[in-house]
Amino acid sequence: MSEISFHQVTAAINDTASLHDITFTIKDEEQWAIVGANGSGKSSLGRLLCGELKVIAGACRAAVSSGYVSFERVNEILELERRHDDSDFLGFVDQGTKAREFILGGDREQEAKLEELAAKLGFAPILERGLKFLSTGEMRKVLICKALLQEPELLVLDEPFDGLDLASCALLRELIGGCVRKGVRVVLLLNRFSEIVPEVTHIAYIQHCRLLVSGGRRELLDSEALLRFHAFHYTLPSQLPEIDASSASAPLPEGTPPVVMKEVLVAYGEKRVLSGLNWSVKAGEHWKISGPNGSGKSTLLSLVSGDNAQAYANDITLFGIKRGSGESVWDIKKRIGLVSTSLQQEYRVGVTVKIVVISGFFDSIGVYHDYSKKQQEIALRWLEMLHMEKQANASFRNLSYGEQRLVLLARAMVKQPDLLILDEPCQGLDDVNREMVLKLVDHLGKTGRTQILYVTHHPEDRIPCIANSMELVPAVGGGFTGLLTGAAQ
Description:
alpha/beta; 6-stranded mixed beta sheet; Rossmann fold; 19 strands; 489 residues
């Protein structure tokens, strides 16, 4: 197998950013983890390894077949599915491209291998489902499977464990080990040092689109220089930004539960997602929601956020108002702040970071109203609290996945809503930004008027103010229902 090498390479990322002076070699038998903060250039380096960036200067040798899996790639695929969605014309829900069809790409000779991989990754039941109906974790499994079927010499996985439940993470680690044993060179692009798998032999650290240090695994993990590059401790603000009175919703009557659900059923065709779910969020409570990939966590949150039409067919009361009683969906949204993968996928308008945050006052994608000087000041203050103030006038679409996540967090918190819905808020965030976000959300939950609904697959991403938890477990007859498990751990 040929050596992969770059010598003093400069490569264009977009019109305003480039990788600089990349000198990097992957020899036979070497498996690499490339670690760095959000916006450091990890994903771009992965694309360079796979020949997807234009080299402006320097010398490179990387003529190997490669597979590349990333959040950005998931977004590109789902955007294409939306463009070809004919549901409105057909009068029924268009399933779109099924997972099996997408993975095979017409190559029926790979059917047997697909079945074997699907069994190993535990997603055989979703092969006949449309891509747009898969969870984040399920989509990542599909992309990894598609890449492996192409039998690449180099497999680049960008944040492969984000969005996967614990069981799926264990299966993926086994699969990565199997790839290495078969002679595939693997490069992991990671935010978390804890996700470096045992097979990794070498580590590189990237910052500001430059490789700062690289070397053997043990040498790098013991390096004081590496710890210094990655060290940061977030100091909580003395007080939260003020609330904009002109856009604030009227206070709820004392003791009003924000969420009451009774015997909720959500199904798409014959497939049940949620079945017989009963759940109440009392005034002042914060909740953690857990469950395996595909258990309906995001569906449950979409019933609360007003983004799922099946809420009208169920007994659901939000902020004291029963759904379907004549309320506007905007009456619900004005009390809610939301961070989710689907929102990030939908936020495709070409606007600045500042405008994205200001849009949180209007619950819109983009801003189509005049906004006040006070709203702009509050938005910039939230960006400052998340150390994103220097990006205020940058294009949102040019940010890294993790940086976009931080901006959407600011958007969600800008009005200090009655209910903050966080669906995997730390997805794509590095150790530094994760610590910052968890502390800030905890501070908001303890000191503000905001109640929190929080989904995560990572037990270490704990928010101390959350003392209630619900696990989604299989229900009799199909789908998932809620199991209240007491204090969140």
